[in-house]
Amino acid sequence: MVVESREWVLSAYVPQGVPTSEHLKLNTVTLKLDSDSIPDRHIAVQLLWLSIDPYLRTRMSGHQDGLYFPQFELNQAVTGFGVARVIRSKNSSYIEGDIILNPFCPVAEYCIIQPSDFLRKVDPDAGVPLPDYLCSLGVPGFSAWVGIEVLGNPKPGENVFISAAAGGVGMFAGQLAKIKGCRVVGSTGSDEKVKLLKEEFGYDDAFNYNTETDFDAALSKYFPTGIDIYLENVGGKMLEAVLNHVNKRARIPVCGMISQYNQVWSEREGVRNLLNMVGKEVRMEGYLVGSYINRFGDFAKEMESYIKQGKISSKHKIYNGIESFLESLASLFSSSNVGKVVIQVKQEMEA
Amino acid sequence: MVVESREWVLSAYVPQGVPTSEHLKLNTVTLKLDSDSIPDRHIAVQLLWLSIDPYLRTRMSGHQDGLYFPQFELNQAVTGFGVARVIRSKNSSYIEGDIILNPFCPVAEYCIIQPSDFLRKVDPDAGVPLPDYLCSLGVPGFSAWVGIEVLGNPKPGENVFISAAAGGVGMFAGQLAKIKGCRVVGSTGSDEKVKLLKEEFGYDDAFNYNTETDFDAALSKYFPTGIDIYLENVGGKMLEAVLNHVNKRARIPVCGMISQYNQVWSEREGVRNLLNMVGKEVRMEGYLVGSYINRFGDFAKEMESYIKQGKISSKHKIYNGIESFLESLASLFSSSNVGKVVIQVKQEMEA
């Protein structure tokens, strides 16, 4: 069996700005998938769903500071979190038809990989729609859970602020904080998403940072008694504004800083009021969900229970076909999406 | 009994720069200290020693952001941490001759106060020289202990960086980290102090930030394997440089940010690379020692034991007479001091 497989290759690093077709090329390669062509212990997989996340951008800058995820290699297919189907196996742990979750899946319609510890097999009897593994029960849901429940340590009645609140992490973070009895306010990029946060995700309030551009005034208005937990997804000016409204012993779990990803660091606007962290004894802590993987079972059990009880809503923005990778990635930086961005690489009916 | 008492009064707030005689006036007041003039439950005290600390500056800015200590009131005597002798008492818990520690002592040669929970009586049999209560066994020693031992959680072999390393907090912080088996490097403002850190306080290495002004290059040189704990005393550019050299799960206890105190916050240079906190999962936490007062007993026991074993050295810079308040305060911002700055308000022999 021979397939034509399209894959996205990084041809040049992107020091600043949004990646374009100058940096990412859609190539077509021919793959032989007969038994002789697949090495021992390897499997051939077909990509079904791909998660599109802001951190992908941070692997394309080419900055050699080494302080974030390692940079993608040039002239190789980039990777992302994917759901794939095994179509050939020369590994005794996998059979044809298995559905796998792969955090470092090449962004390619087909590929041959050697299974690693990172792979997880989906239980076909769980009845979970596949995109949910990239969403409520995947990295965004887990990121929200670690930020709010592990690092945020929310107490009933506390005031919680979520930035990028209608994004993949934000939508779950707000709902988890509400379940814990907190008052929750979010910032997001459109009036439509403000409405969604309040009506669909149960936020107590929300504002559009593109129209309420004086963040300090907005936070005075929405947090008259201050902020106890800020789940940081954007950085820059929003963080600076938050630090003028923190309560004693506020917690700031730092999930990401999307406002910073398209700039070289020396040109970023700095945060000038970190001194407020002393007077208010604020704890700010960066995290990567991979470090909390020993808690994934606790998370999955809790989240599944909330989903069954109808306590968690979820929105996906679905792009179709692997050719939409560049467009879907750029969309993360334009306030245009609602919910978690995913690509349906292959229609499930045909898969 | 009537005394002439000189006291320092704040006549104008200091929005930026170092306080001068335009802002702080040395007034002389006449105090009646006979029994009829002292209210019930009050005591009259004579100030012996006064601690001069960077945080005092933050109480003089007049900024109403309310995020640090409350601002001093205009046309009132400012306050600081003092050692004083009771000279008259109408409070049954105090007798003439008692030596007290007062964290909010008016900067005045004499005053009449109502004792509060903040006061602590010195045990005259402890044999501790009085300035040590403002130093190794006082707020600077306790600040160092909370930063290094409580928040820093040092492990043998870890790399520890201390800024303002020859200052009141820094000199103890480095010694405590050495006792815990860490490798310790400090930054300080003169070659003389670099020498002192290495020869007197046991630092493994140290550099002069006034001559090695490329902090990023300096940290590359002194921390080839990265920084695990940074005790933050200065903020601004130094913090930014540190964030380019942090190791995975580094801890940054924030004791203060002296580089920021003389500027209005909107004119401060911001920190542009907080994103590094995500990739390295850094925890940065501001603290005020008052919040750890329940650990003061543990601290005092441990520190006294180290002092008896000769494991802790200490330097004071002593100014003489209450008239030196303005000069001694300004000296904190000029790299000119070694060790903890105190004023000997009254010679002990005469007291």
UniProtKB/TrEMBL annotation, chains A, B:
The record, for SMART domains, names: PKS_ER
Q: Which organism is it from?
A: Tetracentron sinense
Q: Which residues form the signal peptide?
A: none
Official protein name in the record: Enoyl reductase (ER) domain-containing protein
Q: Which residue ranges does the record assign to the Enoyl reductase (ER) domain?
A: 62-343
Which keywords belong to this entry?
A: Oxidoreductase
Which terms in the Gene Ontology molecular function aspect does this entry carry? 2-alkenal reductase [NAD(P)H] activity
**Does the keyword field hold Oxidoreductase?**
yes
